[in-house]
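TL;DR need structure tokens for one chain.
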Amino acid sequence: MTTPPVEARRTIRFAHTSVGAGVGRDAVSLPEPVTRAWAWGGATGRGVRVCVIDSGLDADHPLVGGRAETFRVEAAESGEETTWTVGPDDQGDSAGHGTACAGIIRGLAPDCELVSVRVLGKNLRGSGGALVAALEWAVRERFGVVNLSLSTQRPAFRDRLRELTDEAYFNGVTIVCAAHNRPVNSYPWRFPSVISVGSHAVPDPEYIEISPTPPVEFFANGVNVHAAWLNGGTTRLSGNSFATPNVAGLCARMLERHPGFRTPQLKSVLAAVAGNLI
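>> reply
TL;DR here they are.
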């Protein structure tokens, strides 16, 4: 009888990924053990509004399910001033990135109320001003969860993004942010008022690791993720962008089961169920 080969652990070449290190249980102070079943078992995200700020959305994609609202941020120039507005969007997603993130969220929280705000173009580039405008709108609309699988490196937007993430934190809006795939300074994922996410290679979308070292807080499945893509298709993707919606989806389920939770409680529960506690 031969033993089947064991697949080697994948090597990930982007920053802020799990190296498999354990974290002592005394780092998570809780009165009693917390389980996945208690945290989100049986929940589907029903009644929780989730906003995906990204490249748009193919709302008719089978993995999205046609139950989504779509918006976009537009710029209006007036002399040297730019005014940003959020309005309905019927252009879909020309890049696939936003649809991929939305599909991952929908897979974990199928009954959440999904909303897309398009700030990125076909080449996955966009303006920091558009990001700020979209986040201002999402915080004002009081979404339960905001998924940000993007960031900006421009220091000019740092202070305003910090103000917005703090406002969200104190008003029951949980922002889940992808850590940058390279070891650079970018925002808002580095701010303590958000939930920051890097990647691990365990193919279980509910398996979370707590990071033993800052600045990233948690790791989720971000390697070879099966995701929705353009023209109704699917693909395999790797990157912190695709780890982040796993955490956003789980947060939506926790908010259904525990409606009084806010960002601090969600962080505590994610840490408590982390699979690398020793």
